[in-house]
């Protein structure tokens, strides 16, 4: 019996567990730790979102000021501000009477932290007048947005053409104040601008002064005066004045290689349709038999070897009025192709690819592979006179592992108007499908599909991308080991 009692006591000790008090204490400790961890994570997430919102707001403000500033700086004929017909209260940061900024609220209203643009019932406009167009920067308080509209002018009257009014495009969001200052525009050629932004509980005010290149009037003095046309005869190609200049043409395989030139006789004395055209090349090389007189000259390049010729035009009414243009002809290897027409709309994506079949049939067959090619992209803006201005160019190539070997700064950071958006850097598939992301909407984005293959590229024009000029965007292929090589060029345009 004693033995049995000892055994029972021993078993009871072995099977003993936690008491209720112990369990309660442990659960209380675990609950406290869980609450602490949850609170820490919640606080960190909140701080991250807060900081991100602040950065995004500052980023949007800087882009907006840069875009508006570029337009102001390049103003040719005048700058005018039309405030809202019903004044909107503005936040304190927007009002600076000592600096001459226009205050649309009383001092009492402006001192209130609750003052905002929500009470305005009309738009305000900053109008920038150029020779051939006007840019209307429209602040719409009811939407907290800034829009841009470009209107095309009739050079003869200075008025907007019947079909010249453009569409409004979104320039900025989260805007609560828009206050231009033209008080020193004529005396110092300086325009001030204050723009207030607000997203949630974050506020940011951007204030800058822009110095204009040209001496222009402001306010009611802004009028369009048509410039006097000098006498002479001009040659145009694709809308550009190429008189006594050079046109570069790349021969296209399996296409009719046709060029169209027009003339214009300035001064108003002679008829542009009464002109005679000629070409320096033989008929077997350049066919111009269709029409040699009038203001339009159509030719077709037939030769597969010709590299240069000249086009001439002369007025029939005044033989002293004559001009010429030199045409340089390139015969590239046509290995670069595009998915559609070459016109670019905001937010649109085009796809380009290297044709392996064309590569195998070319003189480069067996020497180079698709992954050896270097992508080149160049952007130029076109003024109203047809003159071009270089905006930037880049070259980039992907390695065998899909990583960027070289490109903008070698790391994919924005370079001027470009932004690289590879998987490695952005963690995305490029700008396509992310049009509203601030990372993409203000840049010309390019993305190598299957980077280790280097075969395809997507290029997207951001929804808010804007430079104030017509653009030509050219893409071609080169080779590091053969610097003299250049493929056919595909050119996109934004006008």
Q: Can you offer a commentary on this structure?
A:
This protein has 495 residues and is α+β, with helices and mostly antiparallel strands. It folds into 3 domains: 51-221, no CATH class; 232-330, Immunoglobulin-like, CATH 2.60.40.10; 336-493, no CATH class. 18% of the residues lie in helices and 36% in strands. The protein has helices at 2-14, 20-73, 107-110, 185-188, 356-360, 423-426, 438-441; strands spanning 78-82, 124-129, 133-140, 145-153, 160-165, 169-172, 175-181, 190-199, 202-211, 232-237, 240-241, 246-250, 258-266, 275-279, 286-287, 296-301, 308-315, 322-330, 336-338, 349-354, 373-382, 388-398, 404-406, 418-420, 444-449, 456-461, 470-479, 490-493. Strands 1, 2, 3, 4, 5 and 6 form a 6-stranded antiparallel sheet that branches. It has a 5-stranded antiparallel sheet with strand order 11-10-13-16-15, with no helix packed on it. A hairpin with a 2-residue loop joins β8 and β9. The longest helix is centred in the N-terminal third of the chain and has 54 residues, at 20-73. It is flat.
Brief rundown of the structure:
The protein is an alpha+beta fold and 495 residues long.
